[in-house]
Design brief:
The chain is of the alpha+beta class. The chain is built from 3 helices and 7 strands. It starts with a helix and ends with a strand.
C-alpha cells in the first residue's frame, strides 16, 4: 500500500512538472508526455517514485527501496550568546527653570553608555513656600557617550509666575 502511494505521488508530481513547463522550453512543452512510473524512476524526474528494480506495486515487501534525495540544509540564524547588557542610568542637570519669559524647563541629560539610549527625566516645580505645585516626566533620546537637552513645557504646572524654583532628579532613568 505504501509503495503504491509513493508511486502514484511520483507519477502525479512528474505530470505536474511536465505540464507546468518547469525546466522546459516552449518548444518542449508541446512534445512532452508524462512518463510511466517504471521509467520515471530511472530519469530522476519523479521524486519518491520507485526504481525499476523495485518489487511490484501490489504492496508486497522484499524489494529494494530507493532513498529519496534530501534538500541541502540551509543555515538558520541562532540567537546571540551574549545578550545586550542593560543600559546604565544617565545624569540630569537643570540648565533653566521655567519663568514667565520662557515657560519651559530645560534639562541636560548625559548618557554614560556605549550605545544610544532613551532616558526619563523628572522635574518638580515648587512655589516660594517649597510646596511642590506639579511634577513633569519626559523622555529624551541621547546618543552614546554624549549629552542631549530636553525642554519641558510647564503648562500643566499651574500659573508659571508662582514657580519659585525647579528641581530635577539627578538620575535620568534608562528606559531602553
Amino acid at each position: 500500500m505504501i509503495k503504491r502511494v509513493h508511486m502514484t505521488a511520483g507519477v502525479v508530481l512528474a505530470a505536474v512538472i511536465v505540464l507546468s513547463g518547469c525546466g522546459a522550453t516552449k518548444s518542449d512543452i508541446g512534445k512532452s508526455t508524462p512518463q510511466p512510473a517504471s521509467t520515471a524512476g530511472r530519469s530522476g524526474s519523479a521524486v519518491g517514485a520507485p526504481r525499476a528494480d523495485s518489487s511490484s506495486s501490489t504492496g508486497e515487501s522484499g524489494g529494494k527501496q530507493s532513498s529519496r534525495p534530501t534538500a541541502p540544509s540551509t543555515p538558520t540564524a541562532s540567537p546571540s550568546v551574549a545578550a545586550a547588557r542593560p543600559l546604565k542610568d544617565g545624569t540630569a542637570v537643570l540648565t533653566h527653570c521655567a519663568d514667565t519669559d520662557d515657560p519651559y524647563a530645560t534639562v541636560a541629560v548625559q548618557n554614560p553608555n556605549g550605545r544610544q539610549g532613551l532616558f526619563a527625566v523628572r522635574i518638580s516645580y515648587k512655589n516660594a513656600n517649597g510646596f511642590t505645585m506639579a511634577e513633569t516626566y519626559d523622555e529624551v533620546s541621547v546618543p552614546a557617550k554624549s549629552k542631549a537637552k530636553v525642554r519641558v513645557a510647564v503648562a500643566s504646572a499651574g500659573p508659571v509666575d508662582e514657580i519659585a524654583r525647579c528641581e530635577v532628579n539627578p538620575r535620568a532613568t534608562a528606559v531602553r
